[in-house]
Write a structure and sequence with these properties.
Blueprint (H helix, E strand, L loop, with lengths): L3 H7 L12 H13 L39 E6 L6 H17 L20 E6 L8 H13 L4 E3 H9 L7 H13 L4 E3 L2 E6 L2 H11 L15 H10 L1 E2 L1 H7 L6 H4 L1 H10 L20 E2 L12 H4 L24 H12 L1 E2 L1 E4 L4 E4 L1 E2 L2 E2 L1 E2 L6 E2 L1
Length: about 375
């Protein structure tokens, strides 16, 4: 229970000579020095209480360890990485994990602040030591090479990665390389999709910067948008319509690496539901079909009630049953992912604009209307 400023004073080197033959004497001296400091140990508001327990490590005492385990604690389980294949080390690791979750799991409480009876309660943080004694795995050498490559290029082809793997001392097989890329995609150290295998993005910050070229506030568009495409840019900022002319303004510098990999970037953005290309019927085809839509940039809301917009009355149409799902919490932008998913499966309905004598797809801020397949029923 020591404040930061006080701990610095306490940890200053003393004139006393440390005796390696008598470590307990040195420890006693340091503890006495700490107790004589000006720290107020009774001040429970500014300091946390730290309790240290010295467990007996012999197997005969394992059953007593449950006495010290609490369901309200956060646990650190430390193990030697170089002993991963040792049976005794594996048993010891399993013993502690089983003990923690056997004796510390608690039933669901009324308070939402406490853990429920789930596998990850109480939380356990795994700490691996002796990493320097672990033999380099096949994937680790390739990982280091990709880290060096990232300093030169933010994106490389799959052929280059295969060449780096083959050129290493422990080359990966085709299946191992795919598994390697999938794993590093999951932890977002790179971006790789199995159905977009031609390129792998090594620098995720570079990809984020590429996203910002399209999904950005109007004040940051001044340097790139042109006057002749002003209406197209307004379409993007109001209705989320991403015209090819706007993409031309964004990627007009053909020498940049962004322009060179424009098609791959757009496909990746589709994968992450940042941009979508809605399905529309051939009979209602318009020039908008060739455009992308950016759901998070749609500001336009329905001008009137949905039923009024599509001229639906009780005489012409009966309302179907509503199916609602209730959640304790959902991130606000999840609706954009839902709209993107629906756009891949159903046709987006068309709404007629009487004043403009045109029709637009019914994609609005936080809502969209779809024509269900075959029945042509409309789903909102």
């Amino acid at each position: 229970m020591i404040s930061a400023s006080q701990s610095l004073d306490i940890l200053q080197p003393t004139n006393a000579t440390v005796s390696h033959k008598h470590p307990f004497e040195q420890a006693e001296k340091e503890i006495k020095s700490m107790l004589q400091s000006e720290v107020d140990f009774r001040d429970k508001e500014d300091y946390a209480t730290l309790l240290l327990w010295d467990f007996a490590g012999d197997t005969e005492f394992y059953q007593t360890h449950q006495t010290f385990l609490s369901p309200d604690a956060i646990y650190l389980v430390v193990t030697k990485l170089n002993k991963s294949n040792d049976n005794d080390a594996q048993e010891m690791f399993g013993l502690w994990m089983d003990s923690i979750h056997c004796y510390c799991t608690q039933e669901k409480r009324n308070s939402s602040n406490h853990c429920t009876n789930q596998p990850l309660c109480p939380p356990v943080i795994l700490v691996g030591t002796w990493k320097d004694k672990v033999k380099i795995s096949k994937g680790e050498e390739l990982e280091k090479r990709l880290q060096e490559k990232k300093k030169e290029l933010p994106i490389i082809s799959i052929q280059e990665i295969k060449h780096l793997s083959v050129d290493s001392s422990k080359p990966l097989s085709e299946a191992e390389l795919t598994l390697f890329l999938k794993y590093h995609h999951e932890i977002r150290s790179l971006v790789y999709f199995e159905d977009l295998p031609n390129h792998i993005i090594l620098d995720t910050q570079w990809l984020s910067d590429a996203f910002k070229c399209i999904v950005t506030a109007e004040q940051f568009q001044l340097k790139i948008k042109t006057f002749k495409n002003k209406e197209k840019w307004d379409d993007l900022n109001q209705r989320g319509v991403l015209h090819s002319e706007v993409l031309g303004d964004i990627f007009k510098n053909e020498q940049s690496i962004l322009s060179k990999h424009k098609d791959h970037i757009l496909k990746v953005m589709e994968k992450f539901d940042i941009i979508i290309r809605p399905i529309t019927s051939e009979e209602d085809a318009t020039t908008e079909i060739s455009c992308y839509y950016v759901p998070c940039m749609v500001k336009e809301k329905p001008e009137c009630d949905i039923y009024q917009m599509f001229k639906i009355t009780e005489e012409t149409c009966k309302k179907s049953t509503w199916f609602c799902l209730k959640f304790n919490f959902l991130p606000p932008h999840l609706i954009n992912h839902l709209i993107a998913s629906m756009c891949r499966k159903y046709e987006v309905a068309k709404v007629v604009k009487p004043k403009q004598k045109t029709s637009e797809i019914a994609l609005f801020r936080d809502s969209a209307i779809f024509d269900l397949q075959k029945t042509r029923l409309q789903n909102y």
